[in-house]
Amino acid sequence: MSFDFSTASSLANSLSYFCGRGEDYERYRPIHPSAAIDTILSGLNPPIVAADIGAGTGIGSRLLANRGVQVFAIEPNAEMRSSATPHERVEFLAGTGEQIPLETSSVDLVTSFQAFHWFKFAKSLKEFRRILKPGGRLALIWSLWDQNDAASRAYTQLISEASKAQEQSHSKPWLESLQYQLFWRGFWLPDFKEFQQRSFSFTQELDLTGLVGLARSQGFTPSEGEAFEKLVLDLSKFCDRYCDAQGQVRLAYRTRLYLATSP
Question: Is-contact 166 216, C-beta < 8 A?
């Protein structure tokens, strides 16, 4: 899984981007490593209330909730919310990164798993600061296919080729693109303090059905017609090349975690 911050938000309207993909997203998206969740929660004193922004089907929300955190999962897409596996400590609310339906200074932790690149950079950070308590923590996390791993690199290339017809040509405004690039390199996150970056590794094993489901969960890949049939054929050949004796392909991931503290 990889993307270019200069164009990521222009692939489609992010409010409806994953329509028709919720079940695949819930079933096949990888689970972020426990070490990353440990780091996110380290030093925070319970009880912890978190807002998970752009929560999708709540994969990250449930990882937090499994540690005893009370989570407000903020997700604009109704289908994604309805595809989520329920959890007693996760409450889904309709909202966006720029308009979060929570009180000012009401949460100890704001997270965004695989989603911050969809938001308006400055406006969403301002909204994160608004709902965070003073000294509260911000955690932004992505798990991306490791391009140093041959199978993961080949899978990325297949997804990229299949997605070209879906992509739009418009880029982010140059200033916002620059802001994201500086952030991504770990140089800068305005109006937060103690900004730092951490990295983790993990793997995911999938059979052909899983590889197709993971591809569909990306949102910008074809989901029907000749283009989808070609993608399935290409993934079948990929699986034949990289699978083990049990028909499983191991995809390697690098998790990038960015942490900061609210003033």
Answer: no
- Please choose, from the candidates 255, 196, 248, the residue with its C-alpha nearest in 3D space to the C-alpha of residue 59: 255
144 close to 199: Cβ distance less than 8 angstroms: no
d(CA 93, CA 53): 10
Q: Position of tokens 């960015």?
A: 258
- Tell me the helix, strand and coil percentages in the chain, rounded to 5: 35, 25, 40
Inter-CA distances, 133 with 16, 55, 95, 130, 222, Å: 31, 20, 19, 8, 42
Cβ within 8 Å of residue 204, ≥6 positions away: 30, 250, 251, 253
List pLDDT tens digits, range 49-68.
999 999 999 999 999 999 99
Q: What is the torsion angle, in degrees rounded to the nearest 10, for the CA atoms of residue 177, residue 180, residue 182 and residue 188?
A: 140
* Selection from 88, 93, 86 nearest residue 55 by Cα: 93
State the residue for tokens 């997804």: 159
- Which residues in the chain show pLDDT less than 70? 1-21, 165-171
Model confidence, pTM = 0.90
Query: Residue 31 has what DSSP assignment?
Result: P
DSSP H or E stretch at residue 240: helix 225-242
Q: How far apart are CA 80 and CA 69, in angstroms?
A: 21
